[in-house]
Design brief:
The complex is a heterodimer of chains A (about 120) and B (about 350).
Chain A: E1 9-13, H1 18-27, E2 31-40, E3 43-52, E4 57-65, E5 70-72, H2 82-92, E6 95-97
Chain B: E1 4-9, E2 21-27, E3 30-37, H1 57-61, H2 69-83, H3 90-118, H4 122-143, E4 152-153, E5 156-157, H5 163-189, H6 191-197, H7 205-210, H8 215-219, H9 250-274, E6 289-298, E7 301-310, E8 317-321, H10 323-335, H11 343-349, H12 354-357
Antiparallel strand pairs in B: 1-2, 2-3, 4-5, 6-7, 7-8
The chains are: A alpha/beta (about 120), B alpha+beta (about 350).
Amino acid sequence: MVIKNPEHVIREITPDRLLGEVMAFKNAKLRLSQACCAYSEEKLHVSYSFANDDTNEYTILRLVIDKDTEVCSITEFYPYAFLYENEMKELFGVNIQMINLDYENKLYRINEEAPFIKK
Amino acid sequence: MAKQSIVPFGPQHPVLPEPIHLDLVLEDEKVVKAIPSIGFVHRGLESLVEKKDFNEMTYVVERTCGICSFMHGMGYCESIEHIMNVEIPDRAKYLRTIWAELSRIHSHLLWLGLLADAFGFESLFYQCWRMREKVLDVFELTTGGRCIFSVNKVGGVLKDMDAEMLKVMLDVTAGIEEELKVIKKTFLFDYTVESRLKGVGVLTKEQAHNLGAAGPFARASGIKMDMRTTGYAAYKDLDMEIITSEAGDSFARCEVRINEIFQAIDLIRQAISKIPGGELSAVVKGNPNGEYFMRVEQPRGEAIYYSKANGSKFLERMRIRTPTFANIPSLLETLKGADFADVPLLIVTIDPCISCTER
């Protein structure tokens, strides 16, 4: 078996560059492997991971943003991102706009607002 | 134009042991659209990083699910080991590989039984689950558990397998291989099975790629993707080819999973023949500081364990992206144009694990 395990690349970008970068990944036929959020030092760290399944290259686009920063949904390019984006919106309160299927914070039916943000 | 109606499917349904809901938009008996709802039993296990330290989290993570338990623990531990630059002993790598492949056999046999049950072939269902019991017996012999094993730790494994246990494993897997050859004939050559699976729920290669499908579900559509090719645990020392099929229908998903059981048995044989002696774990000092996305090939496909640490014993974030979470959009696509009567079967063919998804 040919083993391919290149180092992961994490690239930090600003929210205004997100859609352009994502479109480039889409055109390069990369797969959106996952998207998730972490809360660190009072900032939201939003990660979008893109996989090249031929080479196993793994690139992560990282947004480091304030809680109220608006982020545009990537569902225009990756329609199946709606579950990831709804999860980030509900658990961390990431202000994601224009999700193609927006559950309006009802994906997990949690009463508390942004429960994964440490109070 | 046919009249449209909306039929709620789940969260309680005989084919669903765990809750997921679909709003099915029908035109007569054909599904034209499906809108999913999950989150009925979301547990928020990931938020326990605030209360459990990075070692204790191993036991939380493996309780994500009772079927994929071992690989959840392994994936999480490997993510922390990457962050801490811990090289685990070779014997621990091989033991992890053996248990991981045994998990794959157990999971795929469970799925084959559920599939047989879904298309109404009761005796086939019982045969698959009878074989699965033997795998659980081996788990009990080698780990002490049948569901949750608690053999992973950051830095290696907690339990060893002696020569006698390895021999039992070889004998049991050889027996399963022979029985599976018989069952395979029924799954792949019986016309009643074919009539329920062939051409049903087709997902093309392009659709599978565009919808981010993972695991056997994607490989049945011709996508050559398997995280074991990244060489984690002892996979870099073993020979395997990615098993794919081109048809993309329910039959192809069945075929891929059956062949993956044979492959798993072969990988266990290779691992047992090459397993070195030595320590079970490496010394782990200090706390993790950094982040890593660990990808492993669960029976249902690519699972991602994201750990982010800040140098304290509590992680800042631990996140599991399960294969079922990735396969839901593709499931919705396969439902389009399907007969209403095939919906339960199509849901089964993605091998949904809602327990994992509702981590």
